Amino acid sequence: MSGAGGGGRLVPRGVEVPFRPMSISEMLDCAIAGIRYRPRTVLGLSVAISTVVQVLGSVLAYYFIGQQARGEVTPRVLIRSVGAQATLGAIDMVLTAFGILVLAGILAPVLARTMFGLDISLGQAWQDARPRFWRLLLMAFVVLVVSLAALAVPLLPFSLALAGGAHPALGVLSALFGIPVGLLLMVWVYVMLVQSLPALVLERQGIGGALTRARRLSKGRWWRTFGTLLLAMLVTVFMGFFALRIPFLIAQLVLFGGSGSGSDQLLPALALDTVGRIVSWSIVLPFDAGVIALLYMDRRMRREGLDLDLATRPTPESDDGFFDLWRPTATPSRPVFVPPLAPNAPPVGPAPGTPYRQGAP
Q: Which residues contact residue 155 at a Cβ distance below 8 angstroms, ignoring those fewer than 6 apart?
């Protein structure tokens, strides 16, 4: 734990991430600064996760969407079938969200060490996340499934009306009600639970404990969390879906956009599309994941006074001790303002000589 400070106390250095509550703009800036501070570590983790996610998405597109959808990975036929493209897009979004959640948990210790100016390599980052890696994957799966279930429940009347051959007007009304309500519930659940990923890794919590911590930390600050995540998502979607993929889309149009596009060109076109998605998402995923981790740290500081608490603790001697620092204490340590008593006010507390009872108000 060299570099944590001197004199036996932690000394927050704020090299790229300030050790204090942050504004929304600061969190967005610090997510980029965290990448700049340790580019090899952050981008190495991002490339690994993006490669797995995007290759899996390409395999699903090739084998499980259908013969018609297989040809739609090339730009020439993007407008041929809206339904198949929507399916491919939905699968890609779900897989990308899964990658962001997993990366948020892995990057949480990286940004936590950055607050103290500690060196962290790619191997150290993996060592921090490895004891919780499988739980982290399960936690990301749980957050996504619960969020999608919140979307699906209000759509049940529409699905039943569609499957039962009900009057079209009934299907339209159920869709007009179910779709907006489902989207709102999905967003509400996702925002409420998203901080469970950093809590799982940094606090060494179990899945149930991390979900409870996320709900507790988001209480009273849902709109602020939502606004921060929305801004981060807009940047991520614009860069990931459009800006960084333009060179690869142009290459696809040039190489595979002619009338001769067929099964013999499917695999090369899919390979080029996959490489483009890996490159673009490897760059933007750490930004979105870093914002989630910073939201967790900001909430800990605002709600529990974590910055003041850690500044008074002794320097840990091991990595296990570093994670012990992030475990929640029994009582918040941020001081509470108590107004001064008015002149000649009666004393507060038990009368002199009263025996002390533990737990008494």
A: 175, 178, 179, 182
| CB 31, CB 110: distance < 8 Å | no
Amino acid at 261: S
252: tokens are: 């696809």
| Residue pointed to by tokens 């007007």 | 169
The first and second tokens of residue 323, run together, are 């994670």
Q: Which residues contact 111 (CB under 8 A, 6 or more apart)?
A: 17, 30, 34, 290, 293, 294, 297
Report helix, strand or coil for 134: helix
Residue with tokens 């159920």: 174
- Tell me if 133 sits within 8 A of 101, measured CB to CB: no
Give the separation between CA 268 and CA 252, rounded to whole angstroms.
Answer: 10
Q: Which residue has the tokens 């967005």?
A: 28
The single residue listed with the structure tokens 């990658």 is 99
C-alpha span between 216 and 207 (Å, rounded): 14
Length of the chain: 361
Residues paired with residue 314 on neighbouring β-strands, in sequence order: 9
**350 with 357: CB under 8 angstroms?**
no
Q: What is d(CA 118, CA 137) in angstroms, rounded to the nearest whole number?
A: 26
Closest CA to 43 of 284, 233, 292, 296: 284
Structure tokens, 28:
């967005």
Amino acid symbol at 327: R
- Structure-token pair, residue 278: 């890996």
Helix or strand run (H / E) with residue 112: helix 82-115
Question: What residues pair up with 9 in beta bridges, in sequence order?
Answer: 314
Can you give the pLDDT of all 361 residues of the chain as single tens digits? 544 444 445 555 555 777 788 888 889 988 888 888 888 889 999 999 999 988 888 887 777 654 554 444 455 444 455 556 667 778 888 888 999 999 999 999 998 888 777 778 888 888 888 899 999 999 999 999 999 999 988 888 777 777 777 667 776 777 788 888 989 999 999 999 999 999 999 998 899 999 999 999 988 889 999 999 999 988 888 887 777 777 777 877 777 765 444 556 667 777 888 888 888 888 889 999 999 999 999 999 888 888 787 777 766 655 667 788 888 865 444 444 444 445 554 544 444 444 434 334 3
